[in-house]
Design goal:
The protein is mainly alpha-helical. The protein has three helices and two strands. The chain is elongated and about 40 Å long. It starts with a helix and ends with a helix.
Length: 93
Amino acid sequence: MGLTVFVVLVVLGVFAEAFTPRKRPIATAAPDVHEAPEDLSFVLRSGLAPIRGYAEMLGDRVADVNDRRMARAIEQQAERLTLLADRLGTKRA
């Protein structure tokens, strides 16, 4: 249960980071100007890569069948979200 809660919080953090407006560097920014990340799919894939990796490592290390199943489910969902991020990047290009 604790592993699931941790991974869900990490995934939510990744998406919050991806959609948080960023200020331009001070030298080129107009006051109070915000912009979305230039390559949203890259931000999402970058955040999902460690989630997939840690889920895979946990799945290999845990002995309990249910914990292994949950780790594999997390890994599969992260893979699915990575594919969606790739599609997002291709559509924006």
